Amino acid sequence: MSFKKLRRFVLFLVWINGLLLLSRDVNAQAYSTDSQLLKRSVDSNIHFYLASMGTTSHLYNGNEYIYTNHGIQGTPFFGSNQPIIGKICYDGTVYLDVALSYDLSADEVFINNPGQDFSLRLITSKIRYFTILNHTFILFENDGTTKGDVPGYGFYDLLHAGKLTVLAKRMKRVTEAFKTEDAPHYQQYDSYILRKNNTFYNIDSKRQLLDLFDDKKEIMKKFYKKNGFNFKKDREMVLVKMAEYYSQLNE
């Protein structure tokens, strides 16, 4: 079955399921149950659709990835040296249960080529976002409308989205050994960028963080002190917790 025919078939199944459920004269409890049944049916059809696409999918059209950094200790990848099952939005389509590898040293994403013994390098500009290990990485492209410390092109870990958005840029670099008998190794570096009112900020201190809350600074200072936060030791956690609380205050 061709890609287009298979897609139409799945959409037809979903449409039929919807008609069957909407045609029932049911009470609120039954409606809730039927909604769950519809969701499971839709999810099942989507999984069937994605699994049936195989290598004909637009997802499997990148260049072969060849790993060349042998002899370097550690891994350039996020989370694991092995592919991680995740989700990716690629070229306008969301793909589930895909074996992904995110190379932090190159800021590139790779996938296993089904039935083959090599990986494919995906085209970065076609990736809107991908999720692995409960981390969602989004592709940032400067459209010219943002201000401040605008981040560069690439993938950013979306830690919190709200009135104050928190992004993390995760990178790995090869660090040379101090002793000749030691091998070079990968070292991870994380930096954080906050976005408020369409302006980006690089935050390097507690003072810079609190200055962002000019409208609710005293409340945020009390929240910081009450929870015993330590910006230097737990920067990522502090940024996320403060952003979450600030977003709640502005709901």
Provide a brief overview of the structure.
This protein is α+β, with helices and mostly antiparallel strands.
Which helices and strands, and how do they pair?
Blueprint: H1 3-22, H2 28-53, E1 63-65, E2 84-90, E3 93-103, E4 108-112, E5 119-121, E6 127-132, E7 135-140, E8 147-148, E9 154-160, E10 165-175, E11 185-196, E12 199-202, H3 206-211, H4 217-226, H5 235-249
Parallel strand pairs: 8-12
Antiparallel strand pairs: 1-5, 2-3, 2-6, 3-4, 4-5, 6-7, 7-9, 9-10, 10-11, 11-12
Helix pairs in contact: 1-2
Describe this structure in words.
This protein has 251 residues and is an alpha+beta fold. The protein folds into three domains: 3-54; 63-202, no CATH class; 204-251, no CATH class. Helix content is 31%, strand content 31%. It has five helices and twelve strands. The chain has helices at 3-22, 28-53, 206-211, 217-226, 235-249; strands at residues 63-65, 84-90, 93-103, 108-112, 119-121, 127-132, 135-140, 147-148, 154-160, 165-175, 185-196, 199-202. The protein has a twelve-stranded mixed sheet with strand order 1-5-4-3-2-6-7-9-10-11-12-8, covered by helices on one side. β3 (93-103) and β4 form a beta hairpin. The chain is globular, with a radius of gyration of 23 Å. The N and C termini lie far apart (48 Å). The model is unreliable at 24-32 and 46-56 (pLDDT under 50).
